[in-house]
Amino acid sequence: MPNKRQTRNGYFYFVLEKLPELRRRGLPVSGVRDAVPHCSADWALLSMEEKEKYSEMARQYKADQDAAPKPRITTVQSLQQKTVMTPKSNLSSEVQMTVDHDFPWGTFYFINILSHGELPPHCEQRFLPCEIGSIRYTLSNGILDCFHHFIDPGAIPRGFRFHCQAASDSTHQIPLSGFELASCRYHSLFRDLCTFVNPSLRSCQPIYCKSNEWNRVNWCLDWLATKAGMENKLKLLHVEDLIVEFYQYKIKEEPSKTRIRSLLDVFQWDYSSNTRCKWHEENDVLFCALASCKKIAYCISSALAPLYEIPLSNAHLPLQDSDPHNSMNPKMVVLDAGRFQVGRENFRSTRLYLETSNCFHGSGLELARSAVLVINTRLTVVINDYSVLQAMRFDNRNTRGRVQLCLL
Fold this sequence. Notes:
alpha+beta
């Protein structure tokens, strides 16, 4: 059945305007299509006059399209891809063209750049870069080298300091200003980055990031190159397409993009040693540009090394995860009620109950080995013998009590 021709309506522009707010709330929305289900209730609350503003945007767009001789993009999905990221079909072919001739044994670079939130579309500066991380990786040898710097984003646009502060507090917690580790030597920083990812001085070096981070990372790279007075010759591609190429090369089959994204979105190595940068490690903050790059490498190593019959080393996975003789193989239960909340909660009223079966003696608990409870913005319970745990209840008036279970 042929696809129905779609056009932009007022609701499209309303959802487009709501995207930054949804992302600040931690929702996984990469574009208008993902955000549509989250905006219907707010759209219904608008008056006819308020909706008319967005309808006028749609009419203006239609008039501009009708005036064009031959519109090249005809669907909302294509428009969204053109606006937000490079088209998927082109990306797949670009990955095939840019990988080394000795694929899959070549060298690959993963990158991420964090920002103090995302500013609305009408702002000239959409992002405020504050941290950059990149790694050099090969499937056979794991992580070879790392690149990491904090970036001085410059002056915060007037009227957006609270917005940026809230975004920082709920994610990476990097200070907006007066941060002694942030560098404003943009020319030196971008030159060092280009040297790191392009040691052979190739004219166009591919570098990879997650598809839902492509828009931010690409904008920040262009911003950094402009600040440095240099040309950005880095070709930013989706790491999901690279992983598809790995599977295609070995088993002649392509996994779905949904499976690839679920492969990358894991919490298993959030607290692994030597994953985050020194500052985020010391401040016990999970959101780190360098850590996100390393976790991409961990995921690829964990999934593909057995397929390619490559022995895992400490460069492929963190020490405690790669050593098969490690005596401690904990099960981790993460009670995460405040990951995306601003500020730290007062956990004095938090009560955690552990109940066991009747086979245990006494009025209290007698765990077979050990139990460690760490209370911070997250509650982490590491229990060596998970079989003794019959039930766990989490009670906190100030939290939503969202429970995540991660079995290592």
